[in-house]
Amino acid sequence: MIQVQRPLIIQSQLIRLCCPLETRLKHASFRQRHHRRLHTKTVTDDDIARLAARPLHPLTLADLIKNGRPPLSASALYNSANFTLSILPARLAHRIQSLRNLPFIVVSNPHIHKIHNNYLHSLSTLLPWAEKEIKTLEDEVKFTEVMADLVQTHANTISILARGFLEARKYISPKEVTRFLDEHLRARIGTRLIAEQHIALHFSSQPHQELSSSSSSEDPSHPSSSYIGVIDTNLRPASIIQHCESVVSEICELKYGVRPHIVLTGEPDYTFAHVPVHLEYILTELLKNAFRATVESGMEREPIEVTIAPLPEDLLCEDNESMSDEVISNIDQGNLDVASKSFTGQDASDTASAVASEMIRPLARSTPGVTIRIRDRGGGISPENYAHIWDYSFTTFNEEQVSSTLSGGSPSKSSSGMDGLNAISGPGGDGANSLAGLGYGLPLGRAYAEYFGGGIAVQSMWGWGTDVYLSLRGVGKVD
Q1: What is the span of the domain harbouring residue 58?
Q2: pLDDT by residue (tens digit) across 245-260?
Q3: Which residues contact 258 (CB under 8 A, 6 or more apart)?
Q4: Which stretches of sequence are listed as region Disordered (predicted)?
Q5: Each residue of 33-44: pLDDT tens digit?
Q6: Which of 202, 221, 240 is the last residue before a domain boundary?
């Protein structure tokens, strides 16, 4: 059998991706930065045009678990690698094309240009594999190195784009920035998830467990039996809520000297299948907002009520009419490049027909899911702010706030509503303070929720409090 030495970069990805939440946190510092020189191929304009012309289809959670539970056989592992290879090059080309369709002066900004070059680099590492099929363990290991390099290369995409658009704000309207970012960041969710899923499956496959002398059930880097890659098929929302409460409480006490408390109601023992890191990010953002509102309104003695409500089984199995409108669209997943094409005069009717033709059901109607309600007594959202809760807040900064943010500070609370709670790290590798004050939390959280057919709804009673409803769909029953 071929003896393969795994590069440290993939080892570090395993700990972050495959392990249960507690293990990931314990080994968070074990993120080595080790680069192995990868074989690349020059990316031509013809390559980009050819790949960007391919239609993209919405990704379902079922796509990511179709190879079954780990440990994967060699053939199943090769199927995962080839599936990943079949869809990633076109997705990267779409991102390159969308960036190039922005006004030239915007793309010339060094931060935005860096993101453009990062996508070119990732595509150049994939092109040598584009015309071949992965059939050997040695090829699969090399391909997994490419996936690990892709994940690391794009780790700070969000914060770098934010800085770029802040600097280029004179040349593009806030509305166009919001539209572009919403689409681009949704597409990034899928690209990253596809790569991370294969990396995780790589380590939980039977061939690589046999190659590893340290592989055992006690190995802290060994994935939980409930995991299929980065998907936990036995995900307990109550556990994620309790972890997020602990994190937000610590920061809240550091900032304000007090910490509100949560009362958990509903069905805390309910489990379903989803991506834990996505739920963790969404809940952190929602609890952050609830804690801040509660403290700033002087209601810190009032509990924040979090209710876990599974989607009713009778609704899932019988009420076909009510489920008929639940679809995933390419708009939800950022696959149409509508924002960037708007600069070239794309016809709105063409966009509408494209959206309609690409809608699919997220999963079978028997798919379990959950709704999580977060209720606070923080005084609600003022009418003038309610209309902008889904905007990327930095687009409304004045010049003084822009200068402060670009120099590493954050806008004053009085002018933007930002405070110390915004220092919580976002998903995908951005540093702890890289998104502070940029107002990405809520719109990005909604993108994660909607990506697989879920959503976030906000109901506010001005002068009283706010109810936020997070709905998520699972992957159905996994054999």
Answers
A1: 8-221
A2: 999 999 888 888 899 9
A3: 252, 295, 300
A4: 209-228, 403-425
A5: 344 577 888 999
A6: 221
SS3 assignment, position 269: coil
Residues 6 or more apart in contact with residue 95 via CB below 8 angstroms: 119, 184, 187, 188, 191
Among 6, 75, 4, 1, CA closest to 34: 6
Residue that the structure tokens 């915007």 belong to: 106
Angstrom distances, CA of residue 325 to CA of 322, 354, 357, 371 = 7, 17, 14, 17
Taking the C-alpha atoms of residue 92 and residue 150, their distance in angstroms, rounded to an integer, is 10
CB atoms within 10 A of CB 122: 27
90 burial (CB, 10 Å; 0-12 / 13-18 / 19+) is: middle
Q: Are 80 and 87 in contact (CB under 8 A)?
A: no
429: left (phi over 0), alpha (psi -120 to 50) or beta: left
Residues 16 and 165 in one domain: yes
* Distance of alpha carbon 91 from alpha carbon 51, whole angstroms: 8
Task: Find the mean pLDDT for residues 226-248.
Answer: 93
Residues 6+ apart with CB under 8 A from 138: 2, 4
Q: Per the domain annotation, does 101 fall within a domain?
A: yes
* Boundary residue ending a domain (191, 221, 251): 221
Task: Quickly count: other Cβ atoms within 10 Å of residue 55's Cβ.
Answer: 12
